[in-house]
Design a protein that fits this description.
Structural class: alpha+beta
Length: 258
């Protein structure tokens, strides 16, 4: 079992989160806005690039942790929704217990033991596009989610830890259509340049928490593959392939953290 986490001297027990609940938490606007970000824009006509987010001197983007408060509720569609009022009360009680002004203060305190990872923008991967297209590089962050529980006070929060970061491009303008299509024909990889990295763990605590979340994901994916009948419908085969892909990514991350 992963050791307890202290916040302002108050102990919380980390726990794994079921995949369905994790997906609902990640759909919350407070978390969603950190998942996709435009990080770089290239202007082919002007021959200039612009970094769109705060970076370190080496063009490294800090990958921040996040804290969410989420009390689920049932919805007519069967998708887990958020009970806004109950979630807000939980957040207020949590902040009162740890004597914090808000989630940002808690995340900064946790940063002392979890450390903040960062990733250098992989601009060289997209450089072959520079002569033929104006484009924006979008960064996608995947999160591992663990619950921090305080049983005595019936309190909990969800800690979101960056686990994988991917970079994709979207073409915004093509100065010379003929040159662009000729380049794409010569190298079809230019059509969908993207790169993906497992976020390195900067501390043992970070690795332990992410492995706690990963273990749950891997168990769930393997169970889906072993008994795919519940997927139903004619699309079951495609869904199963998607689960296999997610399992492969989860196992890759597990190996990187081992």
């Amino acid at each position: 079992m992963t050791g307890r986490i202290k916040i302002s001297g108050v102990e919380f027990q980390p726990a794994a989160v079921p995949g369905r609940l994790a997906e609902a938490i990640l759909s919350d606007p407070t978390i969603l806005r950190g998942i996709w970000r435009d990080v770089y824009r290239w202007d082919a006509r002007g021959g200039t690039g612009q970094v769109l987010v705060p970076v370190k001197p080496d063009n490294a983007v800090p990958l921040g942790n996040a804290l969410a408060f989420f009390i689920p509720k049932a919805t007519p569609t069967g998708i887990l929704g958020k009970n806004e009022a109950a979630s807000q009360r939980m957040a207020e009680r949590f902040m009162s217990l740890v004597e914090a002004q808000g989630p940002g203060e808690v995340v900064r305190a946790l940063g002392e033991i979890l450390r903040q990872p960062q990733k250098v923008l992989p601009l060289a991967e997209f450089a072959p596009l520079n002569p033929i297209a104006s484009y924006v590089v979008r960064m996608h962050v995947s999160y591992a989610i663990v619950q921090l529980r305080h049983a005595g006070e019936d309190l909990s929060a969800y800690l979101c830890l960056p686990s994988r970061v991917s970079f994709h491009h979207e073409v915004e303008a093509i100065p010379d259509e003929a040159a662009y299509h000729a380049a794409i024909a010569a190298d079809r990889g230019l059509r969908a340049v993207s790169v993906s990295f497992v976020v390195p763990a900067k501390s043992a605590a970070n690795a332990d928490l992410r492995k706690l979340a990963l273990r749950k994901r891997i168990e769930e994916y393997r169970a889906m593959i072993a008994a795919p009948g519940h997927l139903g419908s004619a699309a079951a085969g495609a869904q199963l392939d998607s689960v296999r892909d997610r399992l492969a990514l989860a196992e890759e991350e597990w190996d990187a953290l081992a």
